[in-house]
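Worked Example 4.2. Consider the chain below.
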Amino acid sequence: MGYEQNYAYRYPESIKQRNQFAWKSEWPLMTDILYGSAPSLFTGKARAYLDWKGVDYREVAPDEKVRQELILPAIGRMVIPVIQLDDGTLLQDTSVIIDHYEANAEGPSVYPSGPRQRFAALLLECFGDEWLVIPAMHYRWNYNEEWIYEEFGRSMAPDAPADQHVAIGKAIGERFRGFVPILGINETTIPAIEASYEALLADLDIHFQAHDFLFGTRPSIGDFGLIGPLYAHLYRDPASGEIMKRLAPHVAQWVERMVHVEQPLSGEFLPDDAVPDTLLPILRRMMDEQLPNLMRTAELTAEWGKASADREVPRAVGMAEYSLGTVSSTRMASPFSLWMLQRALGCLDAMEDDERAACAALLDKVGGSALLDFPMPFQLVFENHRLWREEAS
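Applying the procedure from the previous section yields the following structure tokens:
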């Protein structure tokens, strides 16, 4: 069975079609290039995957020349990571990058074949990518701000004199600092964000005390979803890393296994499509915290769709309510989060009746039954480095 059939994602017809508008170099490269940086959340996700998959690549810092002459003209905005394949094709977005190599590189897959494990892993990728950005950005900008300015300067302008790194880093970092309030991080929510994150660390620590990765001795797509925020911001930033190592040493050890790959392409998923009980609290937290926000984002995206004839979907469709415990606020309603959720829902929709029933039972255990009839406003596709609503047939 082909990869795209197996995972039933509503992408364009093929990886080749997805990239038909991508920028091409005038000559082939010797190896694939990862344009990224050490402090970047999503570069951390991509790098960990490439290392585990045994991909032959080299990492290049996106200096001013790369930003102005390659990324901005091709992608249309400054974003990392970007992969440049050996034929010059550019891939942007970590899920697209991972799926390219899953389809084209040899070796075992990070997508479990068991329906419950595969569905749970895709949910946890969505949770890591789209929800854990909240504690990641809070701890970076409220605990590590001065450090990260210098780090940005050093990583993005490696050839600049050391005494200029902070100034360069501030120029870069001010943009990211500006995302903090629209992510719902404010004086009201900060205590709840920290309480939720510490509780998540405690639950993950119990799990990683018993298991090397989420579903056994092989990392899954869910592990790679979690590693972005938990490594680049919450382990690598010094104040945040001290908190993780003190409160959750087994989580820190999992991070180290993920980013210092000793045996690429190794390990197995648990037999019998088992989802360990130690993962249920993490999935329950996703359903308690993220799912209501996704539901509201779906409503706002549907309203946008009715009011607009555009096919390209905006990066935000307003502000959506969200709650952590008894504390409520609003954060940017991002349709991209719906695309990430759609990856899991597409997997669910493609299942046989008995497989779907097994996943429904899992959702019932964690308070996620609303996902069985999630009100997706329309199908989404990620093409030409943009999010689009699917054209009517």
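The first strand starts at residue 32 and ends at 35. Residues 280-307 form the longest helix (28 residues). Compare this with Example 4.1 before moving on.
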